[in-house]
Amino acid sequence: MRFLFVSAQLPGHLDWGGYLPTARALHARGHAVLWVSGVEVQAAVAHQGLPFQPVATTGWRWPPPPPLKPAPDTPRAEVMRAMQVRSLDQWLDVDRVVAAVDALAPVVETFRPDVIVGEMFMAAAGIVAARAEIPFAVAGWPAPAERADAGRIRWRQSRARLQAILAQVDAPAVNWTANGPATLASPHLHISYWSPRWHGVAAGGPAVHGAQARYVGGHGLRPRRHRSCRRQSCPRRRWSRGC
Predict the structure, then answer these.
(1) Contact (Cβ atoms closer than 8 angstroms) between residue 198 and residue 217
(2) Using an 8 Å Cβ cutoff, are 212 and 186 in contact?
(3) pLDDT for 143-180, tens place per residue?
(4) Which terminus in the chain has less CB density within 10 A, N or C?
(5) From CA 41, how far away is CA 5, in angstroms rounded?
(6) Global pTM?
């Protein structure tokens, strides 16, 4: 199979607990893999032995928006709204995401992937996948549960931005939540590299994530003894995974 991975142009966005290792494992099993991002992470991806395709923009704003400097007497609610807008500017800016779709589309057309994989903030990846009718998966984040309430200002702003983007690139509203804040939501697969408990999912409790979420983390390591000590009561045991 052919897998196309998309990430923001920052080293931390190659991880998410196992994102880049997932691509590396698929490549080692003989699948065709291509990683797409900004040139800033090209060396890190190439070091893992993976083919890399740079694009002019991924849709992720970097450097980030300037920090907020509210006046001391600014109401807290107003500051919170400004912070929420700044957060949307980071990954769901209309012009930037449209440019990222235009940059990613020819790569998809040339590589012809069977699956497109993106991190949670790669809006262009989900949009291009929907427009090309290619299955899309999200790595590093569980599937969001649907929310009926769409009354919050931030939620309305995010949905308005998404609708503007989809209208400009002529794409369907697939791979996104139908209600609540505009969030990438693959109907096929979300992989979290952490355990359900880490995400606050209680066994037998209410569903807080979509059914397409798969948790592949939380497996403990077997304690090891260090070479210089065979004692079960070694004091180093309290500071390490074992002796």
Answers:
(1) yes
(2) yes
(3) 987 766 555 666 889 999 999 999 999 999 999 998 88
(4) N
(5) 13
(6) 0.85
